[in-house]
Structure formats: structure tokens, C-alpha cells
Amino acid sequence: MKNYTTKLASLLSLLLVVSITLTSNSVNAQKKKNKKSKTEQTAKPVPKKDKKKTIADLTKSSKEIDGLFKIYQDTLTGSVNMLITKEQLDKEYIHFSQVANGATDFGVFRGAYGGSTVFKISKYFNKIEFTKQNTSFYFDPESALSKSADANNTEGVMASLKVEASDDKKGLYLIKADDLFLKETFTQIKPSKRPGTPPTAFSLGNLDKNKTKINAIRNYPENTDLAIEYVYSKSSTLNGGSNAISDGRNVSIKIFHSLIEMPDNDYEPRFDDPRVGYFLTQVDDKTSTETANYRDLVHRWNLIKKNPEAELSEPVEPITWWMENSTPVEWRETIKEGVLRWNIAFEKAGFKNAMVVKMQPDDADWDAGDIRYNVLRWTSSPNPPFGGYGPSFVNPRTGEIMGADIMLEYVHFTNRLTIDKMYNEASDNIAYNSYNNEKYNCIAGELMQESSFFGKTVISAFGDSKLELDKMLYDNMMRLIMHEVGHTLGLNHNMKGSQLFSPEELATPELIEGKALSTSVMEYPSINVTVDRSKQGIYYDNSVGPYDKWAIEFGYKPFKSDQERESLLSKSTQPELVFGNDADDMRSTGKGIDPRVNIYDHSNDPITFALDRITLSKNTLKTIKNTFTEDGKSYQELKNAYLILTNQIGGSGTIISKYIGGVYVDRAMVGQEGATQPYTPVSLEDQKRAMKGLEDHIFAPNAFDAPNELYNFIASQRRGFGFFGGPEDPKIHGRILNFQKRVLAQLLHRNTLQRISDSELYGNEYSLTSFMTDLNKSIFSTDISGNVNSFRQNLQVEYTNMLINMLTGKSSSSYTHTAKSMALYNLKSIRTMSSNSGNISSKAHKQHLRILIDNALKEIK
Ligand SMILES: [Zn+2]
């Protein structure tokens, strides 16, 4: 009680102090006020309180821009008001945005699409609200459950803006649109930092409201478009970014926003099927009792036959492409041809001339960023983010594609190895944002450029004609266009597509002439270059593939019945219609389980393909010193050729490695004709063949042999202080070890080892024990009892460390016990093999191995 009284007393005294302070403050305020009123007395008399301002009052100094949403822009300040009508309330609209300009430093680059979203406009007392809608769920309106459709899913109130003036009779409401458009209201633009991004990485400042502005307003009856320049500022920066950024403290990102009326047309949504690869909008049917209650909307254009009765008819409205006037003149015909090749596929779906290509006039009054035009665009960026990119945007309620573009980078035609990440460790610090959607990430252009480098290197090295080189470049361009156009039609990747022909068939020119080399141009195959140069045919697909035609039929054919659709889908088991996309991201180490679903391989026997590629690369390496040096020029081209060829050898190892512990996947439905079973392990024979391939060509003491006299010449051309970042000498050992490490990382990945054990239960005959024993042998048996060369010393230490890591490393708990036991078994065996033999270097190396193992064994508990 005493305690309580004391507390109360101190509280009272505190209140007293506060009240005294307040009083003195209000006295001061009063004094100030008195002073002010004195001066005011001499000024004009204060007018009576304004009567409520009308819309006309607030917009009298503004230019009226009529369209879907009427906009008034002040002619003096540029600030904008927007008029909302009563009819527009409680209706749905679509928001879509794309990047007009940015920089690759922060992953926001010209032409990148943000996703489209649905929003609703509503009135709340004297405010107008813009609310993002949830489009992920479907409720059958007939079901009573639909009454609780909003349970536990949230809508997002993006803006709530005061009505500045209204005309209640006409139902008009005026809001300040600056507050809507000069902020990141509709979508996040400044990327969020990836966790773990170093503080020294380039980053944007904060959105500067003063500097952010509207660059253009284009208003049409069905869409209101705005070009906004967002400026991000900070007073100082540690990292000013690349030379694409003029001032790291003040960076502009230009975005095109479109507010679009919800289409009211006869488009019929089409639902997805796991056997065909379309982009989709995922929707769950919450009133269905099905286990897989998917109602996923396929992304496709609204093609309608002019003559519905005809077997083959032109569409009412074709998909029209505009070639941007910046397109290099010499490539215009080829590009047009590439787009129109898809018409062959549409003919199977019943449409004639589904695609049309037109040329943007030099004096066009529209910009390529105008969503009403589908544009084939060209850029030559400082740090090209891609070789090609084909995004589209859809109505999230139906999946209807409403617009698309194709972005192409000029770098694709150059000899420049600007895409450093292809040859160095990937610098993976691109941040997350809405314009960096990995789902649509297409590196086809990058890979095709790399492929072309290889093609050029071989063609030049073997003295083939200029004509041959032109043919290769033509094939390459044609295919890149077909691939990117495929994306804009709704198709995603089909990484199983390169299984169409056997290696022998690919080396039979008359057989493949004019054909597709893969089942699908949506694949990323490697270039077709034959070891025997006399058997060289086409280098890339010359046509869309059988899968592409079938997929377009599925997406676009006007089906007369469900049965017709089903009978088309039932063909999915035919070898030329196989499908597997990059869903499980098989591009990463340890991901993806079906080795046929892979990039950069070719033929229905990728192991043989990879071994051939290694042979061809090695043969070519022997010749490059003569073919890639020219009087009066630097050695840059020679260095590039070395990098390209060794990269082919290393990459081939990665392709082969996927066969070990691989499991073939079949997505056919139960009872479908030609179906096997969902999971079938790779045969013992093929896994052994893969192991032998790696032993001979990736791990062997002479695996990456190049003529020693080459090493003195693989030099970059000096530019300014370009070597300041690190010494310029060729780092041969490191490069080769990296290729070997990539293969080992796949073989010893916890997913691979776990799958080998698991698949022993359902048909895998290459047991974990046999595989781990073979791997150990392939890395040690040829030389451990004698002299070990420097490449093998690196490999053996690296591999030993990886085994130790499995047992005592940070992620050791993610390995299975059986895998760890084999790691321990192998370490002990290496310990025994590493006797004190060979030259001094080899003795030192083996002593190193013994100590590593002894120390590790002490740590194991
Ligand atoms: Zn792609």
C-alpha cells in the first residue's frame, strides 16, 4: 500500500510539471497569436469560408485528357487529377506495367513485364479506394459455399484517396491522381534486397517524391496509359553501379502503367493439362471435391474463326506483330520468316494466317511500349540481360493474352563475350522485384549465343567457308525468333524436346534438311555440330517441331467436345510429343531427376552426344593457336576460343552426370495408351556408361589436356586499368577444377545420393555402394600409387574435402546415414591408398590427404 501511495504521489507531481509546461506553452502561443492578429488587422479582411469547390473549379487551369479514366493535368504544375464515375465503382479493372527503361544493375530492364493484376474501385464515405483482388480461387456460384468465398484470403487496399470535389447528380468524383501514380501504388518497383546481399552491393536510394514525375499520359477508350519516371535518391553511395548508371545517388526507373477495362468478350477460358506446357494462372476450385481441384487457366490469345464451319479459316483478328523500326535492316526478312513459321502450327488448329507481321513506320506516332501493339523490339544494352525475351500479359480472370512483345539484344550477333557470367562464377545478387519473375526467365538467347560461339569456333578452326558461317547464323536467328514467339503464344519451355533424333541421324544432312531438330523449339538444345565435318547438316531447328504443332492444337483448336480434347491429349505418349519443363529447375545442381529433361544436350542419347562434343572440342583445341591469331591483332580471340572450347568439355560433364541416380518421369494418365509408369530408374548400363565417361573425360589425369604452348598466349587485350581487379595470367588449374567440382557437386548432392538409395527400392540396379566405390576408383586408382599430376592433386584434395564435409560439414545432417557411411568408407580407403610413394610433389600431396583424413576422423563422433 505504501508503495502504491508513493507511486501515486510521483505521478501527481509529474502531472503537475506537465501541466505547468503546457500552460507556459499555451501562454507563449497566445502571445504569438496576438502578435499575428495585429499584423493581420492591417491586411485585407479575411473572406468568409470558401463554399465547397466544384470539379470545374479544381480543373479550370487543367488540360482535359479523355479516355477510360478522364484525367486533368494542370498546365502550370503538371499535377494530375482523375475523374471516377459512378458507373466505374465496384467494377473490376486490370493493371499492367512494363519497364520503359532501367538498368540491369538492379534487374529492372527495358521491356521487362510486371504481372497483370485485377483491381476494383469503390467508394468509402468521402474516399475512393483502389483494392487489389485475389484471383487464385474459384467458387461455383451455384454452391452455397460461395457465400464464404472471401474467408481467409485477403484483398489489398493499395490506395484510399479523398474525393476533392464531386458532382453527386452526375455521379462524378475527382481525386488527386498524383497520390496514385507518383508512388509505388499499383506495384513494387524498387527491388527488395535478397537476404545476405553484401552491404557493398549496388542499391537504390528512397523514392524521391519531388523528382518523380509523369512523362506522358495516353488515354484511350479501353485503357489509360501513363509513363512514370520514378527517381530513387540518396545523399551518398558506396557503390555507384556499372557504367550504365550516370549517378548512383539519383537513379531513374521509367515504367509504363496501363489501367485496362475488363474485357467483355466471347473469350472462352481453357484449362491446363500436365501433359502440355502452357503458362498459366493458377486457380483452385474451392467448391470441388476432386483431389486435384485445379482450374488453372491456360494463357492464350482469343483466336476466333472468321468462318466457324470451315476446316481452315482465317481468324477474325490475327495476332499482329510490329517490327520496331530499330530492327537491323539485314535481319528483318529472317525475323519475319521466323514469326510466320508458327502459322504452320496454327493450320493444324484450323487457323490460316493466324500471325501477321508489319513494319513500324519511321514516323509512327506510337511508341513500342504502347500495349495496343505487339512489338518485336531491339536493344543494344550496356549489360545485356538476355539475348531474347518474349513476355506476354493476360487477363488474370480468364487467361486471355492481351498483349506481348519480344525483346532482342544486338549482342546476339556480335563476337563479344559480354555475358561474363557464362564463363565466370555466377554473381547472383540480382534482387527480387515484380519485373524479375523467374517463371518467365528465358536464357535461350544466352545459350544460343554461346552455342554460336562454339559453332563459329569450329567452323573457323576447320577452315569451313564464310557461306557455312552465314548459314549457321541464319539458322540461329530463325530459331531464337521461333523460341521467343512460342513464349508469346503461351508456351513454356519443353526441355525434353531434344530427344527427337539419334546422334547418327543428326549427322545425316539429307535427313534433317529443313526440319525441326527437336520435338519443340521451346527447348534449349545445343547447336548441332558434327565431329565429322563432312557430315554437317543444319545447325538449328529450321521449323517448329511436332510437339509445338500439337501444343498449339491443344491451346487454340476450337474443340467440339471434351472427347475431342481428350483424344488429342491421349497422344502425349508418342515420342515426338514428350514434354518436360524446367519446373524443378534442372538447371541447378542437384535439381531435376529426369536426365532427358535437360538443357544444352542434344539427341536421344545425350551421353554419346556429350562424349562426341568433348572429342570435337579437344580436336579443335589443337588447332586454335593457328586459326585464331591474326597479324596486327591482340590474342583476345584466341583466349575466347579457349574459354568456349573448355566450357563445352566442362558442360558435357554436367550433362553426363545427370544420368547417375537419374529417374525417368512419365506424366501420362492412368490407362493411357503407351504409358509406362511415373518413375523408372535409368538402366544400370547407362549409369555405368555415364560413370565411365566421367572417369575418362572429366576426372582422368589428362582430361583437359591442351597443347602446353597454347597457355602462353591466352591473353586478354589490355584496356585502361582493366587488370586492376586481379592478376591477368591464365588461371588454368582453377578453371579445370571448377568444371570437375560442378560434376562432383551433382554426384555427391544430398538429393542425388538419397535418390540412388530410394530408387534401389523400385528398380535402380546401380547401388549406392557400387556407385560410391566406382567414384572413388575413378578419382584415385590410376595414379595414387605413383606420381600424381597437379590437376589430379587438385581434384583428389577437393573430392576428399567433399567427403569430409558430408560427415562433419555444416550441412552434414542433410545426408542420409547410408551416404555418410559410404563417405567414411571411402575416406578410409583413400587413407590406405595414400602411401608414401612417387616423386616429392606426389609424396607431399599424399601426406596432405592423410592429414586431412586423420583430422576429420578425430572430429567424427
Ligand atoms: Zn525461353
From TrEMBL:
Residues 116-306 form the DUF5117 domain. SUPFAM superfamilies: Metalloproteases ('zincins'), catalytic domain. Residues 1-29 form the signal peptide. InterPro entries: DUF5117 (IPR033413), EcxA_zinc-bd (IPR032534), MetalloPept_cat_dom_sf (IPR024079), Zn_MMP-like_bac (IPR034032). Residues 470-783 form the EcxA zinc-binding domain. Keywords: Hydrolase, Metalloprotease, Protease, Signal. Transmembrane segments: none annotated. GO terms for molecular function: metallopeptidase activity. It comes from the Bacteria. Residues 29-53 are annotated as: Disordered. The keyword Signal applies. This is Zinc-dependent metalloprotease. It comes from Urechidicola vernalis. The lineage of its organism: Bacteria, Pseudomonadati, Bacteroidota, Flavobacteriia, Flavobacteriales.
